[in-house]
Amino acid sequence: MEENITKENIRKKENIVYKKTNLMTDKVLSYCPGCGHGTTHRIIMEVVDEMGIQSETLGIAPVGCSVLAYEFMNIDMQEAAHGRAPAMATAMKRLMPEKYIFSYQGDGDLAAIGTAETIHACNRGENITIIFVNNGIYGMTGGQMAPTTLPGMKSSTSPYGRDIVTMGNPLKITELIAQLPGTYFVTRQAVHTPANVRKTKKAIRKAFENQKLKKGLSFVEVVSNCSSGWKMTPVQANKWMVENMFPFYPLGDIKVDRELVK
Amino acid sequence: MAKVKGDIVVDIERCKGCEVCIAACPVNAIEMSKKVNSKGYHYMEKVNDNCTGCTNCAIVCPDGVITVYRVKI
Q1: Which of A40, A84, A100, A262 would staple A57 via disulfide (CB 3.0–4.6 Å)?
Q2: Distance between B60 CA and the closest CA of chain A, angstroms
Q3: Is residue A171 part of a domain?
Q4: pTM of the prediction?
Q5: Structural domain includes residue A14
Q6: Contact criterion met (CB < 8 Å) for B60 and A35
């Protein structure tokens, strides 16, 4: 029997166990090699595909590296002004309460210019899903320091490392919004290993299901790498992320069913 | 004992050679090719028959270039 197993025998349509979902378009992603944005896009689309809600899902693209997210996700999407995605999601959800609305934002978008919109949308408890990709840097514009940049971390505007005396402390926005009464589900995940990708997918699925059950705002942070901004190879960047980002941004659920996880 | 055998098909032109899949493979079945695609990236390829079709490489691939096949033998 074993001799009969040739490449041609294995490569049959019925033997496919994993394939890029059809909800991702065939365009080549504009992201750098190894960037977590691509994986995050794909798992959101897999969740939408598995739930069968392609025609009822509306996404909001941010400004930042993922500004072209609408090119890659094969669903209806809307581009928002820088940082204003939660405000737009609020409007869209109130106009179309039966649709699934999610905003996809980076750390410069959500935690810097869009802090007010984010915090107030979370405090109002809008029934939307926010996906927040945190790589600790402004990737698109050339690796400048972001509010989420770690102390001592080098970026193009902090070439000697972030000095917290003159440049302030990094912002743990996920912990901050977990304190607000409007948020229902707040979690922090990563996409650098298969196990973490599976966990993140579960979290995103839960976030979409909460929206279906009209539970309130679900917030999923994805800690990601930025190999170009950090000036490393993708594999080194993932290792650096595990060693430096995770102690400051610990993974796991922060708020489940409107109760803080102790 | 039921054994499984896997195979992968890589969309060479979309691969950006980030090597994240190589770190994720539990059986060391993939490596970077010495050849490059039309964009100049070294692409990943399967180098031996250890593949079990576990889908780890495809799950972590940021660009979704890998299709995984699996059969029981």
Answers
A1: A100
A2: 6
A3: yes
A4: 0.93
A5: no
A6: no
